[in-house]
Write a structure and sequence with these properties.
Blueprint (H helix, E strand, L loop, with lengths): L7 E5 L4 H12 L3 E8 L7 H12 L3 E6 L22 H4 L11 H16 L3 E3 L15 H13 L2 H4 L6 E3 L7 H10 L24 H12 L11
Parallel strand pairs: 1-2, 1-4, 2-3, 4-5
Helix pairs in contact: 1-2, 1-7, 7-8
């Protein structure tokens, strides 16, 4: 069976470790993936270059980059001029919702994915949310995903016609970063193509000090591996 004859699925692809791993999982499970990325005014928009490379490397049926402007609202250090937190301990990261939380981001992203899924006739959406390493993000929790899935099946043609319901897949939601990276390595994900840093240099070099860099580097270290991405610090 060729890729185009498999069941379609929309996969949210930021270009980072988690979403690249989710893409590989969707492929492993036999789906024909349609990657969706967003240029939403994020300071680390270089991640979109990574998303393109990951999509090409893993092989997708289609890849769309949606333009929205969340800088119009601000409210996050990723969509404003507020400094990104750096040098924080794991305890500090777990102390509350961080400034890198973008208000309603996953709700917005899932809504776009839902719209594309309807057009494609897809009954499956994949998103790389994680409730362990991102415990401070309210839209990464299992109960949020469950509630959104219920809403989606009330708001779509497929759901109201009583056909097979739409499913939101969150294969990483209870994984540690170590487990995520190991899973990706087992599925031949090339993490040198990914971009994780919240405040990278223009050439893509990671800062090495933000929360995202800290969690990524620590995971590679725990696996006894050298992170293939360069760091400034």
């Amino acid at each position: 069976m060729t890729l185009n004859h498999k069941a379609p699925a929309v996969v949210l692809l930021s270009g980072g470790v988690d979403s690249a791993t989710v893409m590989a999982i969707a492929l492993k499970q036999g789906f024909a993936p349609y990657a969706m990325s967003f240029r939403y005014g994020q300071r680390h928009a270089i991640e979109l270059d990574a998303a393109r490379q990951v999509a090409q490397h893993l092989g997708v049926v289609g890849h769309t980059i949606v333009d929205i402007d969340l800088r119009a609202f601000g409210g996050s250090s990723l969509t404003s001029d507020e400094a990104v937190p750096k040098g924080r301990t794991l305890d500090e990261m777990a102390a509350g919702v961080p400034s890198t939380y973008v208000p309603a981001r996953n709700t917005i992203f899932l809504s776009y994915a839902l719209a594309w899924a309807e057009v494609l006739g897809a009954q499956d959406i994949f998103i790389g949310v994680n409730a362990l390493d991102n415990a401070g993000y309210p839209d990464c929790r299992p109960e949020y995903i469950h509630a959104y899935e219920q809403m989606a099946n009330l708001a779509t043609r497929l759901g109201t016609e009583g056909k097979q319901p739409l499913r939101i897949h969150t294969p990483l939601i209870q994984m540690t970063k170590v487990q995520i990276i190991q899973t990706g390595l087992d599925l031949n994900v090339d993490y040198s193509l990914t971009s994780t840093c919240y405040d990278p240099e223009p050439d893509g070099t990671a800062c090495g000090l933000c929360d995202a860099c800290h969690l990524r580097r620590q995971a590679f270290t725990e696996l006894g591996l050298v992170d293939p991405k360069p760091y400034r610090a």
